[in-house]
Specification:
alpha+beta; two-stranded antiparallel ribbon
């Protein structure tokens, strides 16, 4: 059976992403991740650990390691903020904006003291690739394994993750974005429940509810 990338993302088919990783090669895979912010300090109001593509020198010289990394295992390390920027960047045509902890500071009388202004941090990928990926994430919700994230009246895209740690229960992940049909997405989210189990069962409902609450607020 031949699986498209759309089907593979919709049903989390690790073997397909392993094959893509092997076709790209370890260095190309790592460079793509660095383009999204891995190995870099994220400009933020609080200190954030760098996300890592690998830890052991030469790790990605091994094809098995490349295959594992390509579907999110291996030595891959990612912070929740890093993955929130991935979700937001995909929804924003590949442009990753600088994250801020608060939008504005105000006096008790309502006067605004300081207000953040949108600024670009980096470009993760081209607009066409980002839009295609966003469409795949929407397909995963509307036609794939992420059906529990579907909410009538909204367009939601998402991707789950179940990150094995080698010891305790896996970490449950969900990233996603939301908007109104035929409009640009408005909000993005990343949720990780440490040792929570499966991403689709644990993290997805939290992420879905956060996205809907943001649209309703």
């Amino acid at each position: 059976t031949l699986w498209s990338l759309t089907d593979s993302l919709a049903w989390s088919l690790n073997v397909v992403f392993a094959q893509v990783g092997l076709q790209l090669g370890g260095e190309t895979l790592a460079e793509a991740a660095r383009g999204w912010g891995w190995e870099s300090d994220i400009p933020f109001d609080l200190p954030v650990e760098r996300s890592r593509v690998s830890v052991t020198p030469g790790f990605l010289d091994d094809p098995v390691a490349v295959a594992e990394t390509a579907f999110g295992q291996g030595e891959l390390l990612a912070t929740p903020l890093q993955m929130a920027l991935v979700a937001a960047g995909i929804a924003n045509e590949g442009e990753i904006m600088r994250p801020h902890l608060v939008a504005s500071l105000g006096e008790p009388d309502g006067e605004t003291v300081r207000e953040t202004r949108p600024s670009r941090w980096r470009r993760g990928t081209g607009a066409e690739a980002a839009d295609q990926t966003a469409a795949m994430m929407v397909y995963a919700v509307e036609n794939g394994a992420l059906g529990a994230a579907f909410v009538p009246g909204y367009t939601i895209g998402g991707k789950t993750g179940t990150a094995e740690t080698g010891s305790a229960d896996p970490h449950a992940w969900f990233i996603g974005f939301i908007g109104l049909p035929r409009e640009d997405p408005r909000y993005a989210v990343a949720v990780v429940v440490e040792a929570g189990g499966g991403g689709g069962q644990v993290a997805l409902p939290i992420g879905r509810d956060l996205l809907v609450a943001a649209m309703s607020g």
